[in-house]
């Protein structure tokens, strides 16, 4: 049966609008800390929010960036079915990476990747977390751990018999890797900061 392309388009649009909510920017401004893009890496994600010294704000940013992806796919699935949910997941990820309100300059997508995964196939989050935690413990590089976990996700989804999800998360992982190009260059040069490293 062919998908209802109107519902698919609606799911994509819904996902994009939710994904484009810049929680890091909103929360830091509400807290009176100014524009988070003016510090550190200039990113709007939780890692850069943490550079304000406010761990609670960073945690709230991480949660918000994840749950907007979860909300997008669950709402789309309820009203439009699986095809709309898949489109919403893609839309939420694209919205986070390329928010129209911020000149298409958004975050790197790790939290939203996890949130979309949680909404579509919760068991996949355990795979992501296991890979991330294992490599973070061994290597002490958050970025490398996230990159490896994102690459492992579509493989795990395929192994679980979730072929369409595997294709979607392959696309999301490629975008995530592209957004992490500066981190990859620093990893190759040996200049990437380690977890817990100061300065």
UniProtKB/TrEMBL annotation:
<keyword id="KW-1133">Transmembrane helix</keyword>
<comment type="subunit">
    <text>Probably interacts with PlsX.</text>
</comment>
<feature type="transmembrane region" description="Helical">
    <location>
        <begin position="111"/>
        <end position="135"/>
    </location>
</feature>
<dbReference type="GO" id="GO:0008654">
    <property type="term" value="P:phospholipid biosynthetic process"/>
</dbReference>
<comment type="function">
    <text>Catalyzes the transfer of an acyl group from acyl-phosphate (acyl-PO(4)) to glycerol-3-phosphate (G3P) to form lysophosphatidic acid (LPA). This enzyme utilizes acyl-phosphate as fatty acyl donor, but not acyl-CoA or acyl-ACP.</text>
</comment>
<feature type="transmembrane region" description="Helical">
    <location>
        <begin position="155"/>
        <end position="178"/>
    </location>
</feature>
<dbReference type="GO" id="GO:0043772">
    <property type="term" value="F:acyl-phosphate glycerol-3-phosphate acyltransferase activity"/>
</dbReference>
<protein>
    <recommendedName>
        <fullName>Glycerol-3-phosphate acyltransferase</fullName>
        <ecNumber>2.3.1.275</ecNumber>
    </recommendedName>
</protein>
<dbReference type="Pfam" id="PF02660">
    <property type="entry name" value="G3P_acyltransf"/>
</dbReference>
<feature type="transmembrane region" description="Helical">
    <location>
        <begin position="85"/>
        <end position="104"/>
    </location>
</feature>
<keyword id="KW-0443">Lipid metabolism</keyword>
<keyword id="KW-0594">Phospholipid biosynthesis</keyword>
<keyword id="KW-1208">Phospholipid metabolism</keyword>
<keyword id="KW-0012">Acyltransferase</keyword>
<feature type="transmembrane region" description="Helical">
    <location>
        <begin position="6"/>
        <end position="27"/>
    </location>
</feature>
<feature type="transmembrane region" description="Helical">
    <location>
        <begin position="57"/>
        <end position="79"/>
    </location>
</feature>
<keyword id="KW-0444">Lipid biosynthesis</keyword>
<dbReference type="GO" id="GO:0005886">
    <property type="term" value="C:plasma membrane"/>
</dbReference>
<keyword id="KW-0812">Transmembrane</keyword>
<keyword id="KW-1003">Cell membrane</keyword>
<comment type="pathway">
    <text>Lipid metabolism; phospholipid metabolism.</text>
</comment>
<comment type="similarity">
    <text>Belongs to the PlsY family.</text>
</comment>
<keyword id="KW-0472">Membrane</keyword>
<keyword id="KW-0808">Transferase</keyword>
<dbReference type="InterPro" id="IPR003811">
    <property type="entry name" value="G3P_acylTferase_PlsY"/>
</dbReference>
């Amino acid at each position: 049966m062919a998908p209802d392309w109107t519902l698919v388009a609606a799911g994509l649009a819904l996902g994009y609008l939710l994904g484009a909510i810049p929680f890091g920017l909103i929360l830091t401004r509400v807290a009176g800390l100014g524009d988070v893009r003016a510090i550190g890496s200039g990113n709007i994600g939780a890692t850069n929010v943490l550079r304000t010294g406010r761990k609670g704000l960073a945690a709230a940013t991480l949660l918000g960036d994840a749950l907007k992806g979860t909300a997008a796919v669950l709402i789309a699935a309820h009203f439009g079915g699986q095809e709309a949910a898949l489109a919403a997941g893609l839309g939420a990820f694209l919205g986070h990476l390329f928010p129209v309100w911020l000149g298409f300059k958004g975050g790197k997508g790790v939290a939203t990747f996890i949130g979309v995964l949680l909404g579509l196939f919760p068991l996949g989050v355990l795979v992501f977390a296991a890979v991330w935690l294992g490599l973070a413990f061994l290597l002490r590089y958050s970025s490398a751990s996230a990159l490896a976990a994102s690459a492992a996700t579509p493989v795990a989804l395929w192994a679980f018999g979730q072929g369409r999800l595997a294709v979607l998360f392959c696309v999301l992982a490629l975008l995530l890797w592209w957004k992490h190009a500066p981190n990859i260059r620093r990893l190759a040069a040996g200049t990437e900061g380690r977890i817990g490293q100061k300065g």
